[in-house]
Amino acid sequence: MVRIGYTMMTEQAGPRELVAHVVGAEEAGFDFSVTSDHYFPWLAAQGHSPNAWAVLGAAAQATSRIPLMTFVTCPTTRYHPVVVAQQAATVQLLSQGRFRLGLGSGENLNEHVVGRGWPGVSVRHEMLEEAVFIIRALLDGELVTHHGTHYDVEHAKLWDVPEPAPPIGIAVSGEHSCRLAGHLADVVIATEPRRELLEAFDHHGGAGKPRIGQLPVCYDTDHGAAVERAHEQFRWFGLGWPVNSELPHDGAFASASASVTRDEVAKAIPCGSNVDRFVEAVRAYTEAGFTEVALVQIGGDHQAPYLDWAKRELLPALRTL
Fold first, then answer.
1. Has the keyword Chloroplast been applied to this entry (predicted)?
2. pLDDT tens column, 273-301
3. Using CA atoms, how far apart are residues 158 and 166, in angstroms rounded to an integer?
4. At 261, is the pLDDT very low, low, confident or very high (cuts 50, 70, 90)?
5. pLDDT band, residue 77 (cuts 50/70/90)
6. Among this protein's residues, is 125 annotated catalytic?
7. Phi then psi for 320, rounded to 5 degrees?
8. Pick the catalytic residue: 11, 107, 111, 129?
9. Residue 127 burial (C-beta neighbours within 10 Å; 0-12, 13-18, 19+)
10. Which of 75, 142, 170, 243 could crosslink 239 through cysteines, CB 3.0-4.6 Å?
11. CA of 274: how far to CAs of 5, 277, 284, 310, 313, in Å?
12. Separation of alpha carbons 27 and 164, rounded Å
């Protein structure tokens, strides 16, 4: 049976609200939760972007059952890998073993803020691979001195080491990232229901490991209002990863998605309150081979009715998949 997750979308709610939302998700019966890690929202209409790690620390204390996960953190530019390792170890301890560390090669949207420029995709993958090596060593309790192609680490050690270490997930979008994830990850992460990504992950060593997808949805009893909100806040979603990873700020995403129509959004994102439409969208992931699917309810101010509906109708329907 597929595991259904809840997304704390940091781009659309403030920190206190995000913690309240994940508490509600735990009460509603979601199997796990994930958290985006952004410095900028995708579009200004989303309106937020608090620090994900501070939110995770609070969520770890406010909840008792639901697993937590970054979806995803870029450990290469805005954060140094040794800082990510310390943050992950701390959240794993605070949550008493409920944390998974999701990593990815990042987006210019969030990483440009430290003024180091934005390298090409092949360099970003090199940086991610080196960062994972450093993070794993630190989470294993090692004393690390490392002078590599992209990072220097001098006499680093974590003094509060969780047992077990949090599993590491890696986000994939193509052959190269699938090879990296197959070799290095405990979990694979994707935002599209593409079977070929999972097949490539398996080919490179990922067979038998969990695979997590993510799906935006927009529940509302008013179908038209749901479509309008999804268009206002999530029309960037269909631009594709090669575009999404390169655009530098929310204004660029607004320009790039200006021609996306409401009909196109309604076709790509389940909107309204028809449970069957939501189930079919999740089914695309299960049929591709995903074992877990994290849902993103669009609209920070529309979480409470969604969580109530999910508990009563959506989650029971999804349990049949």
1. no
2. 999 999 999 999 999 999 999 999 999 99
3. 14
4. very high
5. very high
6. no
7. -80, -10
8. 107
9. buried
10. 243
11. 19, 6, 17, 12, 10
12. 26
Query: Tens digit of pLDDT for each residue in 4-16?
Result: 999 999 999 999 9
More confident residue, 241 or 79: 79
Q: Which residue has the tokens 């204004």?
A: 251
Residue type, 318: L
Cβ atoms 282, 321 nearer than 8 A? yes
Q: What one-character-per-residue DSSP string does 122-148 give?
A: HHHHHHHHHHHHHHHHHHTT--EEEE-
3 CB-contact burial (10 Å; exposed 0-12 / middle 13-18 / buried 19+): middle
* Residue with token string 């994972």: 132
In angstroms, the CA 219 to CA 229 distance is: 10
Tokens found for residue 22: 């994940």
Which CATH superfamily does the domain covering 3-318 fall into?
Answer: Luciferase-like domain (3.20.20.30)
Which one of the listed residues 11, 21, 26, 38 is annotated catalytic? 38
